Amino acid sequence: MITIPVQNREGKEIDSVKVDEAIFGGRVRYALLKQAIVMYNANKRIGTAATKSRGMIEGSTRKLYKQKGTGNARAGNVRTNIRRGGGVAFAKQFRDFGKDMPRKQRQLATDSAILSKLKVGNVVVIDELKFEKPKTKDFVKVLGNLKIDRSCLVTIGQPDENLYKSARNVPGIAVMKAVDLNAGDICNRQKMLFTKEAFMGLIQKEKKD
Predict the structure, then answer these.
(1) What are phi and psi of 39, to 5 degrees?
(2) Whole-angstrom distance, CA of residue 174 vs CA of residue 166
(3) Are 183 and 113 in contact (CB under 8 A)?
């Protein structure tokens, strides 16, 4: 069992939550975690780089002049890649770098990522994280009280526009709903900050699954 303290906005411990490692698979599956991170990064690649090949250049396919007897270097048509304005040799074409994984494997990888954070103490749980209006200064103050001074994935249960707007200008901070968690986003940040509502909801969901 892993005991996670629940803190308030001032950084004082007011409660605790016990988590059974078995809920998140019991162990960290490193091979599966790597596969999920590779997929995450591959799916972020755009792959729209493209250049014109010889076949895409306008111009005649006629040989410019005969092979021998002119005193010039041998030359093909005007589309050749060795002439100015010609096509590119081995031209780049649109490419889809996307990868996929079975749903159960993706879920196991996400569980392993969360479990790895839990084991090294990089999960912080706060009782509530609501703002009456968007205020980056107030959000940064809460992070300071919780001793979060590095990149962090803030996980909430329900969408909160004020929280999104308060956090969007803070470097290294991302806000995400618990149902949208994935191994790539979790591993890309040093810490995870859960609201108690989101954390308990995640545990209940994992138990049902």
Answers:
(1) -65, -40
(2) 11
(3) yes
pTM attached to this predicted model: 0.78
Contacts of 153 (CB under 8 A, 6+ apart): 174, 176, 185, 186, 188, 189, 191, 192, 193
Q: What is the pLDDT of residues 183-209, one digit of tens each?
A: 999 999 999 999 888 888 888 877 766
To which residue do tokens 């308990």 refer?
200
Please report, for the chain, the start and end positions of each structural domain, with discontinuous segments joined by +.
2-41+100-208, 46-96
List of residues 6+ apart from 109 with CB closer than 8 A = 29, 32, 33, 35, 36, 101, 182, 183
Asked if 114 contacts 4 with a C-beta cutoff of 8 angstroms, the reply is no
Segment 51-98, tens digit of pLDDT: 999 889 988 889 988 999 999 888 889 898 888 888 999 999 888 888
- Specify whether the backbone of 47 is left (phi greater than 0), alpha (psi in -120 to 50) or beta: left
State the CATH architecture for 2-41+100-208: 3-Layer(aba) Sandwich (3.40)
Tell me the chain's radius of gyration from C-alpha atoms.
Answer: 27
Q: State how far the Cα of 105 lies from the Cα of 100, in Å rounded to an integer.
A: 10
List, as one string, the DSSP characters of 93-108: ----------HHHHHH
Give the pLDDT confidence of 147-181 residue by residue, as tens digits: 888 899 999 888 889 999 998 989 999 999 988 89
Apex CA 135: angle with CA 179 and CA 190, to 5°?
Answer: 50
